[in-house]
Every structure is written in C-alpha cells, then in structure tokens.
Amino acid sequence: IVVLCDVSGSVYTMAKVMLTLIYSLSSQFRQVRSFAFIDDMVEITAYFENDEMEETVERVLQDHWKNGVASSDYGQAFREFESDYMSIVGPRSTVIIFGDARNNGRLTEHHIVEQMKKRAKRLLWLNPERSDSWNMGDSEVNAYLPFCTEFRECRNYDQLEEFIHKLSA
Questions:
Q1: Is 72 helix (H, G, I), strand (E, B) or coil?
Q2: Which helix (H) or strand (E) holds 106?
Q3: Strands 150-153 and 122-127: what pairing?
Q4: What are the helix (H) ranges across the chain?
Q5: What count of other Cβ atoms lies within 10 Å of the Cβ of residue 153?
Q6: pTM as predicted
Q7: What are the 10-residue block averages of pLDDT along the chain, 169 residues in total?
Q8: Which is nearest to 61 in space by CA: 104, 98, 16, 106?
Q9: Could you give the CA distance from residue 48 to residue 57 in angstroms, rounded to a whole number?
Q10: Torsion of the alpha carbons at 104, 142, 131 and 78, rounded to the nearest 10
C-alpha cells in the first residue's frame, strides 16, 4: 500500500483523520509506504513505526506544516514522487491518494497519476469535499478522475469506515 496524503490548509482537519488511517493501515499491513505533501512530497513511513497514534499524527503535522504555507501544489508533489519514489509502485500495489484535488491554478501533472495507475493494481482517491463542489473553482477532479480505479467522497467516519471495509475485503 502506498498512501499520498495532502496536509494543506484546505484539508487540514481531515488530514488528521487520514494520518490516523495511515497509522492503522501501518499496524495491519506489512508493507505500507506513506507520504505527506503540501507541495513537496515527504516520506513519513518511519513516523508510524514506534510512537503512539496521537503523538505520531501531531509530529507529522508539526514537522511538515510549512509555517503557514497552506496552498497545495499537486503537480510539484507528483513530480517529486515520480522522481524519487515511483519505483516502489508495482503490479501488486494499491495506491491511495487523499486530497481535495485543489491545485491553486498550478500544473496538474495528471500524466503522473496515469503512470501510477498503469503500474499499480489499483489507484484509489479519497476526496474530503462534497462531490457537488468537485470541479468548481481550482478543483482539478476531472484531470485525475480518468486514472483512478475509484474516486470517492470521504468526509466523515461512516464513509471512511465503508472505504476501509471495502479495502480489506
């Protein structure tokens, strides 16, 4: 499992929930590689190896929250993932992207998501926004949607629980 988690301002509250999910996945599955980004992609796998869940989530956010810089740049993050980590994605991989796909007018680099999908068994995207707000303003959902095995709204614990159940089935 490879998880890419947007921790920018627009998803900050739900990012805490997703980091908690990553913590849980790391304790249940042997091979979970996890990454956080606002614009730079940072591997956070080691954070989930020893600490308590709440401490881990807070430490990830403290270490990678860029002094108030909160505008995501998915294109930059995906370029860094492609350059530094794409080799970890293989035919047995499940890639999970968590984020609102709001790219603040920057390049989407959706071809990198397409490349991830071609390499992986499946690519799942969890979006914490209501689906009726997708593709409005700076939302780039339509750029990424064609390359996802599944693209779903995930705004609350019921939706997250449904996703986890489906993931482990």
A1: coil
A2: none
A3: parallel
A4: 12-28, 53-64, 74-84, 110-119, 141-144, 157-168
A5: 16
A6: 0.92
A7: 91 84 84 92 88 82 67 94 98 96 93 98 95 94 97 88 79
A8: 16
A9: 9
A10: -50
